[in-house]
Design brief:
heterodimer; A: 255 residues; Rossmann fold; six-stranded mixed β-sheet; 9 helices; 35% helix; globular; B: 364 residues; mainly alpha; MetI-like fold; 2 domains; 15 helices; flat
Amino acid sequence: MEPILQVRNVEKTYDNGVKALKGVSFDVNPGEFLVVIGLSGSGKSTLLRCINHLHTPTGGEIHFKGKNITGAKGKDLKEVRKKVAMIFQHFNLVPRLSVLDNALNGALARTPTLASIFKQYSDEDREKALEYLDLVGIREKAFIRADQLSGGQQQRVAIARSLTQSPEILLADEPVASLDPATCHTVMDYLKKVNKELGITVVCNLHFLSLVRQYADRVIALKQGELVFNGSPDDITDEWFQTIYGEQAKEVHIN
Amino acid sequence: MSLLNSDASGMDSSVSQMEKKKVDVAFKSLVLDAVIFWFLALSVISMVGPETEGYIDLQYYSFLSLGLLVVGGALSYVLQAKASIKTLGQSVFAMPQFGDEQSQTAWYLSFSNWELALAFVFALKSGIAFTDFSLIEIFDANGIEGVKRILTGILTPDFHILPRAIEAVVQTIFIAFMATVLAVPIAFVLSFLCAKNIMSGNSFTFGIYTVLRLVTNITRSIEALVWAIVFTVWVGVGPFAGMLALFLHSVASLTKNFSELAEGISDGPVEGIKSTGAGPLQVVWFAVVPQIVLPYTAFAIYRWDINVRMATIIGLVGGGGIGDLLIEAQGQLRWGEVGTLVIVIAVVVWLMDAASAYLREAIK
């Protein structure tokens, strides 16, 4: 099977000299649920931002469906971002807009600028946005301002926004890190649903190892900007765990 | 649920950074001490030195100042490094380091406190001299008589002028209104071009940012009264000149207010909208504008309020409005009319102030 995403020796050095990624390579297969783990500062967020081109990699190549998209600009960049949607730890919704308007923001890339400013979205996009709000179980809140919602609900709106883009890959940057444990599972379940029912490939950064075991098809681990593990979640033994998280690390369980 | 406990530490080039910080602090405290020494020495020299006729000799004082600054800096260095006495400069700029011995000196024995007190006393002395501060003038009988005359006039207002005053104050309000309404859309557009976070993308946009920032800063630093004088020459004496002066000043001020708001927006929505593949204009419209539209409106209302206050005095230089009447009545010593005008101005300014505060609170 041809990988949908190929990451080849990707490096990212920030302007202040910090080397966030030091040559990371891996493939993502179509339809899989790939989880990226690692300590804070290991480069997980940078990696996802490089794939979506919110950051430009300083070295290496990223191929999307066989096409080199590294350093894409203008129209090409727009195409990449359309197909590679992203959700964030802090949801990144527009607080003063309604839930529906936020979901419709996913259609911005295919709506002409002037039309979008006057909210002239196509009926098809409108239906799509509502349909995806329905999918994440938040349709009844469509006309409430986004900042009135709880964290978990906001993240579901963010998922709906990304789905409105009709993406082929969904990048999730620690989507549950600022949510409570119960809400956490709800959001992860919706991501799984998106993955299994809509067949959208998911690449997800996670903190909690128990979530990883529950949701991931495959796991990669980053440590100080380098790939140190690539395999099945069941293969993360205690030794691997200590390699990834350091000697003093211990897995803590909270019920 | 599982959380992760671990110890991640990244000690990189913190040592050289500390060295750099130390040098930086030493330099800043040296400069502060030198400036204080220069000020104290100049004060003493002008006190004991011979009275000079005419203007000061700039060249002489430049060389003197340079010398004094060098001596002051050297003195500060000797005190800090050789005698290890904590000067004012050090106590201002040097952050106490972890593990530093807290000095146990009583406050009246600390060198830096004496340095501060001395500088303050000499500044007070110079201030009294420069402002011709004089209690004798305040209690001068003739002066008090004059004030009494004016205050009685103002406190017994002459309401014959009321119709003219009301007409003029309405004009004043509309001078302010037009200046604000015309300034807001221009400032709105300029504010994005003057916001560092929006413009620092590449060197071209950053160039625009720098130039616009400079132009608006200069425009803003020139008082509206001065602009009014310029415009009375340009378009003639009258309300139009006053309106244009306030307009120009408002554009510059609002651009600054607005761009600071635009710089303070949260990056989250910007990132979120960007990630969907939206174009640059769409990012501004959907991620930036919703965050700023209410604070912008609040500032615009506040500006109208300020402009009404400024428009009441813009007439003093021929800019129309109620200030025209005020300068006329004052020039002819008709204090009763001045009293009426002052009352009208006070009422309008108070009303505008209250209304703008109420509106701004309501739209929060």
